[in-house]
């Protein structure tokens, strides 16, 4: 069994200009990828020190979505982390960053969680375009 149940990408923004770029990305993500787009967080939330929105996606989506983020992040910082049963390690030790590394607050993250607490991904996009179109 794959210990990675799903992934998150957190798209960070600090300024109105960066928020506009994040919105540009969000539209294109929704058009291209079957993912669960989280709502906008305009302020620090949870372990995240910077305003952001979350994109949750299943393991098979990684192979196309993460390379797309590499080429389309418009200079924004993106945290990509796995979801296992160890949230602290997922965010702090086993994550990858695109762009500048942002602060993550470890005190918010528990060492381990129970399996049933990890919600399944429920995609809320209806992609109509191929990833690289
Ligand atoms: Zn996350």
Order of strands, main sheet, comes to 2-3-1-4-5
Q: Could you tell me how far the N terminus lies from the C terminus, measured between alpha carbons in angstroms? A: 33 Å
Radius of gyration: 14 Å
Chemical compounds bound to the protein: zinc ion
Determine the structural class based on helices, strands and strand pairing: alpha+beta
Largest sheet data = 5 strands, antiparallel
Count of runs of 4 or more consecutive helical residues? 3
Element pattern in H and E: EHEEHEHE
The percent range for strand residues is: 15-25%
> Count the strands?
5
**Which term fits the overall shape?**
globular
Q: Kindly report the average pLDDT value.
A: 94
| Helix content estimate | 25-40%
Uncertain ranges: none
Report on the architecture of this protein.
The protein has helices at residues 16-32, 62-72, 87-92; strands at residues 6-12, 36-37, 52-57, 78-83, 96-98. The chain has 133 residues and is α+β, with helices and mostly antiparallel strands. It has three helices and five strands; from the N terminus they run E-H-E-E-H-E-H-E. The longest helix is centred in the first third of the chain and has 17 residues, at 16-32. The termini are far apart. The site of zinc ion (ZN) has 4 residues, from strand 1.
Task: Chart the SSEs and their pairings.
Blueprint lengths: L5 E7 L3 H17 L3 E2 L14 E6 L4 H11 L5 E6 L3 H6 L3 E3 L35
Antiparallel strand pairs: 1-3, 1-4, 2-3, 4-5
Quick gist of this model?
This protein is an alpha+beta fold and 133 residues long. The chain has helices at residues 16-32, 62-72, 87-92, and strands at 6-12, 36-37, 52-57, 78-83, 96-98.
């Amino acid at each position: 069994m794959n210990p990675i149940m799903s992934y998150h990408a957190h798209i960070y923004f600090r300024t109105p200009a960066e928020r506009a770029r994040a919105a540009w990305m969000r539209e294109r993500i929704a058009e291209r990828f079957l993912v669960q787009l989280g709502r906008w967080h305009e302020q620090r939330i949870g372990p995240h020190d910077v305003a952001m929105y979350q994109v949750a996606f299943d393991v098979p989506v990684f192979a196309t979505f993460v390379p797309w983020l590499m080429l389309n992040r418009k200079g924004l910082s993106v945290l990509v982390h796995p979801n296992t049963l160890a949230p602290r390690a997922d965010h702090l030790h086993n994550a990858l960053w695109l762009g500048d590394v942002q602060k993550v607050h470890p005190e918010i993250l528990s060492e381990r969680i129970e399996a049933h607490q990890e919600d399944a991904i429920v995609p809320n996009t209806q992609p109509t375009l191929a990833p690289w179109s």
